[in-house]
Specification:
The complex is a heterodimer of chains A (316) and B (273). With 316 residues, chain A is an alpha/beta fold. Chain A is 41% helix and 19% strand. By secondary structure, chain B is of the alpha/beta class. The two termini of chain B are 23 Å apart. The chains are: A alpha/beta (316), B alpha/beta (273).
């Protein structure tokens, strides 16, 4: 079932609520505030919603200056621009400077759809997670986004929130619990675990249904916080289910799959492991379902990866 | 107009800032000499005569702030902060040493009194604009000052910030362009000429002042005074400066950007100050 609103609308509503409570909260955007649902807040908060024009580098720098003066700035643009174009500004003016700036990157991965390869960020998570002090969050639906935004604002330090801005599949109920850095266990299976984030959580749940019919019971972990990673949940999943598949709407280098692999390797967890993700390719134009198939991110691809892991486990 | 006595005092202070900087750089073996020496008078004018700061309370919200966007000028900024009492001048001995809290580029996390971290050129003015916006929002009368290099101004982000400052009429933002005419690979005029800065800033909607002698306290302070009398626009003060000023043999050379001082050069410079 689809959610009843776009995630950008939920974002705007949540930020408006928080801005009413916290006079330090300011929004800084670069001419994509309409696309991201933050520009409507300009009406209620004309002095606290700053549109810098098409100048993403300046957006992040201005936010850093605001933060240095005690403001709590939230920047938004497309994920591709926040990570690629603003990497140096995010690294130096925000993180290295120790400033409390929140960064929202929308249209992650295949969600960029018709904007195509130039706008398709398969690398933003990888880039952001290698910045010391950075928290990386990717909520999967409106209810979780609302909680994630509130949690993000509580963090004392930079946070990158990866935002799907359209209508998502509904997974959580309003007011759901959200614990930053703690994965949510959505299904309790013990045959294998799929660890997913963002749009891929729905695909993982679909894969769990498919496999259920074949008698394979999946554990689905929503790893909404990619950094800091919930290592304990990964270790427990490996021990209890004996096989791990990761699912990310991103290049399978250096993102969620790699982060999970690090935990598996460093804890000597001897389990079959496979990543579902974009296999080191550029994006291209297309609708979401076409692109999910094109880059092998579908529920069937996840189910296939699970079966492949189970086969490897039988052999050993 | 400064009194004779005040001018002599400030001149002596600039001498001291240069000496502390050169000694610290000599100690570590190598450093950014050219671009530190070109802003000695500006820093002394700001900290001794202009800025509303309290060295015993570096995070005072009502203070004036300085963003040194050409972050490699840190050694002389540190020297001036130490002279003002932000920290013990003995700490200058540790400049760029292993484990130091005084790194080569301005670092707000490590150094009391540094208002913004800088290092990758072109970023500081954006932060200064953000600070001026925060002051505007909070109805604070504090000023935000920024120092941007002439070569640094080749970075596109500088002009993104310039446009926003004009759009937002940030009249309490004063930017100094250290127009020493040199960048790492050559003379700025030969690599990518940026002059005339004053006309560029005016075209972007700023109030701009060209200062013929960027090492003259009278001229620097007069320009700041003029800026503060001019409402509704941000201000650019273009300082015609000499790279490696008062370092014999290095003045006005682009090779002076970062080099090793010999003992003889240090002694000559200290005598020459």
């Amino acid at each position: 079932m689809l959610d009843n609103m776009d995630m950008k609308t939920a974002l705007g509503e949540t930020l408006a609520e928080e801005m009413r409570k916290n006079s330090s909260l300011v929004l800084v955007g670069a001419d994509l505030m309409g696309a991201n649902g933050t520009w409507p807040l300009h009406g209620e908060f004309p002095d606290r919603v700053i549109n810098v024009g098409i100048a993403e580098a300046n957006m992040v720098g201005v936010a850093a200056g605001l933060a240095a003066c005690g403001k709590l700035p939230v920047c938004d643009t497309f994920a591709a621009f926040m990570a690629r174009r603003d990497y140096d500004q995010v690294f130096i003016s925000v993180a290295y400077a120790g400033l409390n700036v929140k960064l929202i990157g929308s249209d992650p991965g295949v969600a960029a759809e018709m904007n195509g390869g130039t706008h398709m960020s398969f690398e933003d998570v990888a880039l952001m997670r290698t910045i010391p002090t950075m928290t990386v969050v990717e909520p999967c639906d409106c209810a979780q986004l609302r909680q994630a935004v509130k949690a993000m604002l509580e963090v004392k330090g930079p946070v990158y929130l990866r935002l799907y801005r359209k209508k998502p599949h509904k997974i959580y109920e309003d007011g759901c619990r959200f614990s930053l850095g703690r994965a949510d266990c959505l299904t309790q299976g013990r045959d294998a675990t799929v660890i997913a984030a963002g749009m891929m959580v729905w695909n993982a749940l679909q894969a769990a249904e498919q496999l259920n019919q074949e008698g394979i019971h999946l554990r689905v972990l929503n790893m909404h916080t990619i950094k800091p990673l919930d290592k304990a949940a990964i270790i427990l999943a490996a021990q209890e289910t004996g096989a791990i598949v990761t699912a990310e709407n991103a290049n399978y280098f250096n993102g969620l799959g790699s982060a999970v692999a690090e935990v598996i390797a460093e804890n000597s967890l001897s389990v079959p492991f496979q990543r579902v993700g974009v296999r080191d390719q550029f994006g291209e134009v297309g609708g979401t379902s076409y692109l999910m198939e094109r880059f092998q991110l579908t529920a069937s691809d996840i189910a296939q990866a699970v079966k492949s892991c189970l086969k490897r486990r039988q052999i050993h | 107009m400064l009194t004779e006595e005040r001018r002599a005092f400030l001149t002596q202070r600039a001498r001291q800032a240069r000496a502390l900087t050169l000694e610290a750089i000599y100690r570590v073996g190598r450093g950014h000499i050219g671009g530190t020496m070109s802003i000695a008078e500006l820093l002394i004018a700001l900290y001794d005569d202009v800025m509303r700061v309290d060295p015993s309370n570096p995070s005072w919200p009502e203070r004036d702030r300085l963003v040194v966007s050409k972050g490699h000028a840190a050694p002389i900024v540190y020297a001036v902060l130490a002279m003002k009492g932000y920290f013990d001048p003995k700490l200058l001995d540790t400049l760029n040493a292993n484990g130091t809290t005084l790194p080569s580029h301005c670092d707000m996390r490590k150094v009391p009194g540094i208002d913004m971290t800088a290092g990758s050129l072109g970023q500081g003015l954006s932060a200064a604009v953000g600070m001026a916006l925060a002051n505007q929002m909070d109805h604070r009368d504090s000023y935000v000052y920024a120092i941007v290099g002439d070569g640094e101004s080749q970075e596109g982000q500088v002009w993104e910030a310039v446009m926003l400052a004009a759009q937002r009429k940030l009249e309490h933002l004063i930017v100094f362009v250290d127009d020493n005419g040199c960048q790492v690979d050559g003379f700025t005029g030969d690599i990518l000429n940026m002059r005339p800065f004053d006309q560029k800033y005016r075209a972007f909607g700023w109030h701009a002042i060209y200062v013929e002698d960027g090492h003259s306290f009278d001229q620097i302070l007069d320009a700041i005074h003029q800026a503060k009398q001019t409402p509704d626009r941000p201000h650019a003060i273009i300082l015609n400066t000499v790279k490696a000023k008062h370092v014999p043999g290095a003045e006005n050379t682009y090779q002076s950007h970062c080099f090793s001082l010999t003992r003889e050069q240090l002694d000559n410079s200290l005598r020459n100050l």
